[in-house]
Amino acid sequence: xxAFDWPAIRSRITVDGVITLxxxxxxxxxxxxxxxxxxxxxxAADESxxxxxxxxxxxxxxxxxxxxxxxxxxDLAGDAGVAAARSIIAAExxxxxxxxxMTDGIIDPRLILGLNMAAENDLAARPSHHxxxxxxxxxxxxxxxxxxxxxxxxxxxxxxxxxxxxxxNILRVKGYVAVxxxxxxxxxxxxxxxxxxxxxxxxxxxxxxxxxxVIAERHHIDRAAxxxxxxx
Length: 232
Prior knowledge:
By secondary structure, the protein is an alpha/beta fold. The chain has 7 helices and 8 strands, in the order H-E-H-H-H-E-H-E-E-H-E-E-E-E-H. It has helices at 7-10, 24-28, 36-45, 54-65, 74-92, 154-168, 223-230, and strands spanning 19-23, 68-72, 99-101, 141-148, 172-177, 184-191, 194-202, 210-217.
């Protein structure tokens, strides 16, 4: 957002509005709230750590910057979950913003375009944990790319990904997998323990090489443990 306030840019471009996408099911479950026990454990190991969890900071920063919030996975969250997510986001936001629930990413574009917010003129109302604070780093998250052999059991792989989320606090997994006897590649997407997959297109002449990108907070990334869990 600050980049749009640079003179060379703001004279040519305005920001119609900032749209933040929030996973209603995860927000309602408290997955973006600070994990007090985890923070205390980190502080005990490193006295220089004095802030919230990186995930909660990112959540708060993105909510504070939003002109409108789209609540995804509304069908999975249910009415009670969506209501809980609305309450949590409202408590974090420095100002009142509209929140729209959606399922399967479907939203009428007329609702999110033409906001005319000129957000670059309103930076003071969009605070960040990183504003003027050199103690906070932007590399709190890390990822590893894991190569896998062909699998004969996609559900076993999905369960391995769910175990990673539970046992190693993995946030996100995405990539594609070669399934034995199948001419099409399997697209895999996971957010926490929620794993989805679908065959997207044939391998064709491309090598049948499976790759998964695993994303977590930096101190949770352990390549050897991830490879072992995934059978790499």
